[in-house]
Design a protein that fits this description.
Blueprint (H helix, E strand, L loop, with lengths): L2 H28 L8 E8 L3 E9 L3 H31 L9 H17 L4 H63 L4 H17 L2 E5 L5 E5 L4 E4 L1 E2 L2 E3 L14 E3 L2 E2 L13 H30 L18 E2 L16 H4 L1 E2 L15 H4 L20 H11 L2 E2 L9 E2 L1 H41 L3 H38 L1
Antiparallel strand pairs: 1-2, 3-4, 4-5, 5-6, 7-8, 8-9, 10-11, 12-13
GO biological process, one term: bacterial-type flagellum assembly
Subcellular location: Bacterial flagellum; Secreted
Protein name: Flagellar hook-associated protein 1
Length: 495
């Protein structure tokens, strides 16, 4: 090798070592930065010119990154469902000491009726029974408010999620364009690749997403149901929020480029992600639980209805202790009357606190509607208990319930309320178990990816020492060649 070739080789080594040192420094600086992947200097040898930096790559694994995206989306969906169910359960069934569940309130009402039946001439016990009935109605009213509040909150969170998705897609567009241009120009785009992966990771929290890499580093995004999110340009994700919810309200669907991805009419519904979880919470679990509350209310009205006591009955049954805006008819059997739990009340005619004050003894006597034909205590006896014992029996009597509610299809109103409590608890437990499972998968996926693309400080410091030794050797070689050239020139000059 000539001295000139040796000098060129040493200079090339110095340049390569300088770039290596810079990359190692970047790795050390980015070690604690979320989303940073370890950068690798790829060296090659050019005959006659020595070593050079062929490329700067990043440590990555497409398969492991996909696993992280999948686990993130699945975890976000289950968390959204669990959070909503937790709010409902906490307000309706969680605290045994408060006896706030419909089942607890029903049992208290039954106990109050039994006590009143044992002393039907006791006005204080009559008032206590009416008060317990009012507590029962209030618990159903408040449970309905809680369910609709959760639905309303889910709808608002869906609007926030859609806004986040559109924002992230705009950011993705900017970074993806920079990657394509940089790749074509031969620039180092590894930091842009990190940024793009970070954006996609955030996007996966909102919606299940897959990324397809194409020529020149270009990428396309699809939902887990196959709808295009980004292909050269970002697709518009739209959603019209509903500000107030009642039991009969149907929330709007989310659209991606005009294609519905949530709701009953969606042919390509989202499978995972926070948005999918919120939609499922708003449209499925909460609606089912509301229908169960409505059936409890209907079962109460049925159990306490009054019948025509004429020798030859001709009049239809009428609501008694419990009534609703649809009175004087009794709701149809085994059919959900949407929103009934939110409107059920105790008849004012038996409520002492009403204006004008009601008569609680009508619970014993009948004719709560004010029609004499429905009077059970025709003799006006203060010790009349037949009707009260009948009401207690009615609370234990089997009646059919709407099978679409997923509660007990046939049994007493107390049995149905108990099945409703079990249902919401089971739904919450299942969601919590799913959250724990998906979080475990996410932790393992993140750990596996970190083992591939994470920065190990010990390895980086060891590499830095190696680069320093190479740099020192190259410098020494240049110094030696310089001395040799000086000696050669000196010898030529004296000849």
């Amino acid at each position: 090798m000539s001295l000139t070739a040796a000098l060129d080789s040493a200079r090339a080594s110095l340049m390569a070592s300088g770039i290596q040192s810079s990359v190692v420094s970047r790795n050390i600086a980015g070690a604690s930065t979320a989303g940073y992947s370890r950068k690798i200097t790829v060296l090659d040898n050019l005959p006659g010119a020595g070593v050079y930096v062929a490329a700067i790559q990043r440590a990555a694994s497409g398969g492991l990154f996909t696993n992280v995206l999948t686990a993130t989306s699945a975890s976000a969906k289950q968390s959204a469902i669990y959070d909503g169910l937790q709010k409902i359960a906490a307000a309706t069934v969680d605290d045994p000491e408060l006896d706030q569940s419909p089942t607890a309130q029903l049992n208290k009402l039954k106990q109050a009726l039994q006590q009143y039946a044992n002393a039907p001439d006791n006005t204080t016990l009559a008032q206590a029974a009416v008060s317990s009935a009012k507590d029962m109605a209030t618990s159903l009213n408040q449970a309905t408010q809680t369910v609709q509040s959760v639905r309303e909150g889910a709808d608002a969170d869906m609007a926030t999620s859609v806004a986040n998705i559109n924002k992230l897609l705009t950011q993705f567009d900017t970074v993806n364009t920079a990657i394509v241009k940089g790749t074509i120009a031969g620039d180092d785009v590894t930091d842009y690749l990190d940024q793009r992966d970070s954006i996609v990771s955030k996007l996966s929290q909102e919606v299940g997403v897959t990324m397809s890499i194409r020529a020149n580093g270009d990428a396309a995004l699809y939902t887990d149901s196959g709808v295009v999110l980004f292909d050269k340009t970002a697709r518009t994700v739209s959603f019209a929020a509903t500000n107030a919810y009642t039991p009969g309200t149907t929330g709007n669907a989310v659209y991606i480029d005009g294609v519905p991805v949530t709701g009953a009419n969606s042919v390509m519904p989202l499978k995972t992600g926070k948005l999918a979880g919120l939609a499922q919470l708003r449209d499925n679990a909460t609606v089912t639980y509301q229908s169960q509350l409505d059936e409890i209310a209907r079962g109460l009205i049925t159990a306490f209805k009054e019948s025509d006591q004429s020798p030859v009955p001709t009049l239809a049954d009428r609501p008694g202790l419990f009534t609703y805006p649809g009175a004087p008819t009794v709701p149809a059997s085994a059919t959900v009357l949407v929103g009934l739990a939110g409107t059920i009340t105790v008849a004012a005619s038996v409520d002492p606190s009403a204006t004008p004050a009601g008569n609680p003894n009508l619970l014993r006597d009948g004719a709560i509607s004010g029609l004499p034909a429905y009077n059970y205590n025709t003799t006006g006896m203060a010790g009349f208990s037949t009707r009260l014992h009948q009401l207690v029996s009615n609370m234990d009597a089997a009646q059919p319930f709407d099978t679409t509610t997923q509660g007990k299809p046939n049994g007493s109103v107390i049995d149905f309320a108990s099945s409703s409590t079990s249902w919401i608890e089971n739904q919450r437990k299942t969601a919590n178990d799913n959250v724990q499972y998906q979080n475990t998968l996410l932790d393992r996926s993140n750990s596996a990816l970190s083992n591939v693309n994470g920065v190990n400080m010990d390895d980086e410091m060891s590499l830095m020492l190696q680069v320093e030794r190479t740099y020192s050797a190259s410098s020494k070689l240049i110094s030696t060649v310089d001395d040799m050239l000086k000696s050669l020139l000196a010898a030529v000059g004296t000849s």
